[in-house]
Amino acid sequence: MDLIKDFRRPDAARPISREINELIGNRNFKIMEVCGGQTHTIYKYRLKEILPESLKLVSGPGCPVCVTPINFIDRAVWLALEKQAVLHTFGDLMRVPGTGRSLEKARAEGAAVRAVYSPLQAIDYAQQHRKTEVVFLGIGFETTMPAVGLAIQKAAELHLDNFSVLLSGKRVPPVLKTLLSSEKIDLDGFITPGHVTAIIGTDAYEPLCAEYKVPMVVGGFEPLDLLLAIRMLARLLAKGKHANANAYTRVVKPGGNRKAQDILSTFFIPADDELRGLGVVPQGGFRIHPQYRHFDADCRFDITVESKEPKGCICGEILSGVKEPFDCNLFKKACTPDSPVGSCMVSNEGTCNAAYLYS
Amino acid sequence: MNDRILLGHGSGGRLTRELVDELFVKGLQEAAPHSMDDAAVLPRQDHKLVFTTDSYVVSPLEFPGGDIGTLAVAGTVNDLAVMGATPLYISLGIILEEGFEISRLKNIVTSIADTAKKSGVCIACGDTKVVEKGKGDGLFINTAGIGVLAYPTDETLIQPGDKVVINGTVGDHGMTILTMRKGFPLKSSLQSDCAPLNGLIHQVAQQQQIKWMRDPTRGGVATALNELVENKPWGVMLSEPDLPFHEAVDGLAELLGLDPLYSANEGKVLMIVSAEHASETLKALHEHPLGKHAAIIGTVTADYPGTLILQTEMGTMRTLGILTSDPLPRIC
Question: B258 in a domain, yes or no?
């Protein structure tokens, strides 16, 4: 079986799309795909063309770059320019605008910013440059955090005293809880994120599903994965039922990945945290475990910056599914991937970026 | 001879002479038969002349499938060839950084000679300069090329129904360079497609009218076709299932979230021919070693004027816009 091509077969998609159309009819439903990767697939394959018009798909807050608060970029830039720290970051954070400048612009002004594929590259660098402060910008959801945890473990083993992590790690279930308890947001169901759920397991959504009586189905990232998840949701919606289900069984298990969960609980603790657009979400993020606080850039440095959100940008409302990119006055005008105003235009998981590229 | 480039190698004195004699004259041999005068005197031509220039700053300098030398000759030859010209002469300007290994330079010169020989061009003139260590990144090359117009293309002949043809897999060069970058954690069997295309183009062009040609280098297939359709009363529809991709390009693109339609090619040519000539064109391409995986990938359509459209594997349609920003600098 070809794990890419076989999940893009139009002949397999047709009957699924037909069933979804029959189930939904012209009743209005609004469902959210939580992860930016899923948004990307929906736009890239124009899935809305083969889905009922009355079924509205809205993008969620599951793009790590997008939900990273502007203050995080400002603090990173401050570390690079004021403390001469050598920053290590995943590439898609480079162009996210800060209050004054993005990391890319800071680099042009002389800041040391290196784009890496793995946090372990920052460890290697710190090992080779023992007199230089090396900071890894640890952003992401439960999917990325285990790799950051491993980097901290490695740094501890090597007794590195010049390595730290500026953390902005987010937790999906509390973020979904915030969306569900908001009065502004009216959602009939969720396509929960495939990769995050591979780590935390479908069990993690049980309490939410029971409390808010909302159908939740784990979806993958290929067109057929998503259609299968939408069909499962449509079957539930048609009957007015809710359940916590899984349409991505080839990757996601009820209990998730225990090893990764152990790493998470060893190196991090859940904490209240700010997400762009959603404000402070109770237990919505990670902090570095007190036992490893010497690897926490926020403890290591007394970072003082003031941040301001860009005017006119509605990333926040887009991230919480209230608005769409086309509702924004800046979209495709002042805000493009070449000169992004908001974070949603930067990352290729961002809703505005997907909407810009594929429509 | 020294084993590394010294500033003196660019002084114009004895060291320069030694470098030119030992490396360039010996290395290039029949590819550069001209004398040591300040400029080359070229014979009069009966046809219109076609003239181009390009600078090469690829990083890293060596990559699977070629090096900056291969690229510097093939790239300029291809710019001439896709204009319907027969490439005849190229110039070779090299800027070296102090400390560059002579052995590496020798290999690059060998690539230049081999590629010039393959494409039948003569290196008519050249120049070498050296900059201080830290002021250049090893080596940069500029080549200019002159050819005679043999098979003029005419994009005003393009009409709905015409076919878009490519001579092989899409996006190989860009993805290969990506995998060679420092710190890239994956290995692959991928090779750059870097090659001179004038022989292949000649094979097709002598049989039939090619209405339009372009080598989809930086920005890839999607950017080249977007430039073509801009402000035209017709558009181009590409068929995703018909696009030839190397398996590794497909995999890398999936993994990294990149679209190979925007990835650079250095040995590919896009052609537009009439529908009735499409299968003959394909046959002619298949007979050439650089056209084995040639395919008809799209159709000119009146339905989407000024637009490049992709019919996806799922059967849905979406627009392919122009490349917004280069995901990978210094690709050629």
Answer: yes
CB contact under 8 A, B313 and A358: no
Which A residues 22-51 touch B at CB under 8 Å? Answer: 40, 43-47, 49-50
Across the A:B interface, residue pairs with CB atoms under 8 Å apart total: 56
B70 and B14 co-located in one domain: yes
Residue B90 lies inside a defined structural domain of this protein: yes
Enclosing domain of residue A179? 5-63+172-246
Cα A293 to the center of its chain, rounded Å: 25
Query: Nearest-CA neighbor of A133 among A305, A294, A306?
Result: A294
Residue A320: its pLDDT value, please?
82
Q: Within this chain, do residues B228 and B312 fall inside the same structural domain, yes or no?
A: yes
Euclidean distance between CA atoms A198 and A216, whole angstroms: 15
Question: String of b and e for A335-356 (b: at least 16 CB within 10 Å)?
Answer: bbbeebbbbbbbbbbbbbbbbb
User: Domain check: are B205 and B285 in the same one?
Assistant: yes
CB contact under 8 A, A9 and B313: yes
> Do B122 and B33 lie in a common domain?
yes
Tokens of A85: 């720290």
Task: Quote the ipTM score.
Answer: 0.73
Confidence of residue A319 (pLDDT cuts 50, 70, 90): confident
A90 vs B79, higher pLDDT: B79
Tell me the average pLDDT across A240-262. Answer: 96
DSSP 3-state of A288: strand
Q: Which domain holds residue B76?
A: 7-149
Full-model pTM: 0.83
**B174-187: average pLDDT:** 85
Count of other CB atoms within 10 angstroms of residue A41: 22
Q: What is the CATH number of the domain that holds B31?
A: 3.30.1330.10
Verify that A165 and A176 share a domain, yes or no. no
| pLDDT of A71 over the 90 cut | yes
Specify if A308 maps to a domain: no
Domain count, chain A: 2
Residues A194 and A217: their CA atoms lie apart, in Å, by 9
More reliable by pLDDT, B189 or A239: A239
pLDDT at B324: 64
**B327 domain-assigned:** no
In chain B, what percentage of residues exceed pLDDT 90?
A: 77
CB contact under 8 A, A47 and B314: yes
pLDDT, average across residues B92-101: 96
- Residue A205 domain flag: yes
pLDDT band, very low/low/confident/very high, at B326 (cuts 50, 70, 90): low
